């Protein structure tokens, strides 16, 4: 069964690659904007806070092999937060 939906690369993007990596061949652009950003410190990535703003520039989880599976494993938490009423 094909699983091409788990990987997409836009090497023509002016920001490609948007993170410093050794292997650009396996750099996955599918989650260009990480859907786990909203999880704050529960995302599991290597982020820091700069002046109160989450800086994910050192995290390559969404762009790595296995990143799709990792993000999908956290989507229940994203959906829960997105479903909460103020």
UniProtKB/TrEMBL annotation:
Residues 4-83 form the Cysteine-rich small domain. It holds the Pfam family zf-like. InterPro entries: Zf-like. This is Cysteine-rich small domain-containing protein.
């Amino acid at each position: 069964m094909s699983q091409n939906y788990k990987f997409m690369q836009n090497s023509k993007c002016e920001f490609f690659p948007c993170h410093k990596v050794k292997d650009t061949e396996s750099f996955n652009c599918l989650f260009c904007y990480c859907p786990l950003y909203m999880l704050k410190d529960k995302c599991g990535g290597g982020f820091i806070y700069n002046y109160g703003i989450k800086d994910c520039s050192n995290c390559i989880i969404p762009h790595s092999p296995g990143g799709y599976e990792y993000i999908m494993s956290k989507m229940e938490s994203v959906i829960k937060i997105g479903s909460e009423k103020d």
